[in-house]
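User: Please predict the structure of the protein below. I'd like the answer in C-alpha cell form so I can feed it into my own downstream comparison script.

Assistant: Understood. Taking the following sequence of 406 residues as input:
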Amino acid sequence: MSSGTRGPAPRRNHEKERDTTGHQWLETQKVREKLFLFGVRRGKQSWAEVDEHLAELERLVATAGGVVVGSMVQELRQPRAATLIGSGKVEELRLALEEEGADAVVFDHELAPAQQRNLTDLLGAKVLERAQVILDIFVRAAKTREAKLQVELAQMEYLLPRLAGLWKHLERQRGGIGVRGGPGEAQIELDRRLIRDKIAGLKKRLQKVGVQRKTRSKRRQQFFRVALVGYTNAGKSTLMNRLTGSDVYVADQLFATLDSTVKALSNVPGKSTLLIDTVGFIRKLPHQLVASFHSTLEAVLEADLLLIVADSASEALDVHLDVVADVLGQIGAGSLPRRVVLNKLDAIKEEEKNGLAMLYSDAFFCSAKTGQGMAELRSYLESERCRWGQEVRRQWEAPPAVPSPR
C-alpha cells in the first residue's frame, strides 16, 4: 500500500503541552501538527485488519489534536534491528514525509529506543509511536489529582529508556580518546537519576491516594457493585448516565474519561446497587499505563459483577472483546462474573442484530442513547443484586466452623 492522503479530522484547537521534564510529546498547537501514519503487516495478518488499526490510529491522532496527511504500510517479513524497516522503505518514507509536508511520522508498531533515534536521524523528522499518542491523550484527559499522578508516572517510565534520544547532540561526544564518558554521558546519567527519583516520589504519592481510595471502597462493601468495563468509546459513560440519571462527561472521542466514577442505580430503593464507570481499554495499550492505573482499576477487582460494554456496530467487535479480556487478565480480574452488553443498537440493522445474537447468545442488546433494552438490563441487575444479597445473608448466618479434634 503506498502513501495516500486521508480526510482531515474535525478541527480542534489545543495549546502546545509538555510534561514536567520538558520532553515534548505530540505538538498540538493552534496550527495543528501534520502527521503521517506508518503501519506494518506481519505474518498472516489481513490487510483489512491493518487498515482498521490505521483507522484507529488516525482517531487517536485526531483526539490528540493532530491531522493525518497520509499513510503507508509495509509487509514486514524480517524486522531490521537498527530501523525496524529496510533502508529502501526508509528512503521512500522520507520522500513521502517531504512531499506531504508532514511534521512527524507515527508508527503503529512498537519501536525500540535505538530504532526511534535512528529513524529520527535518517528521516530528518520527529518519529513517534502509537504509545506516545495514547500517553499524550491521557495527559489531556486527566482531571483529578490521582489521574494526573498516574499519567505522569507512566510518562516518566516511558521516557527513562529513551533519554539518550533527547541528548543526541551531546551523546555524539561519547566514545573515542579524550571524550569517553564526557558531558553527554554525564548529562544522560544525571537525568536518569532525576527521573528515577521522580518515579519513586510519584509512587509514594499514589500509595497515599490509594489508601484514601481503599477507605472509600470499604464503605461500599454493603452495596452490590457493578463495574462497567470495555473498549474505549463503547458508550460506558452514556450507559452510566442512562442507568443512574447522572451527568458523567460524555464525548464521541477516545478516552473521554480516565477516572472511575461511582453512582447509584436510579429507581432502586435504598440505593443498594452501585455502578462504577472505569477508564476504557484499547489495543496496544502501553504497559506503563496499565501499571500506573492499577489503583484506579482496583475498582474493577472489587466489583461483584462486570458488565463488558461493547460497540455492536464496530467491525472489530470480537477483537475489542478480546482486548478487554486480555487487560482484565493482566489486572487479575479474569475470573470475575461478567455479562456482555452490546451497546449502540440504534446504529445497526435488525438483520445485523440477529447475526450478532447467534454469536453472542448470552449478551444484552441495548442503546444507551435511545434507552432501548434498558428495562431488560435493569431487570437483570436487580435479579443479580437479589442473588448477591441472598449469598451475603447465607455467609452471615452460617454457623462458625468447629475446629477438628486433634
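That's the full C-alpha cell string. The CA atoms of residues 41 and 50 lie 6 Å apart.
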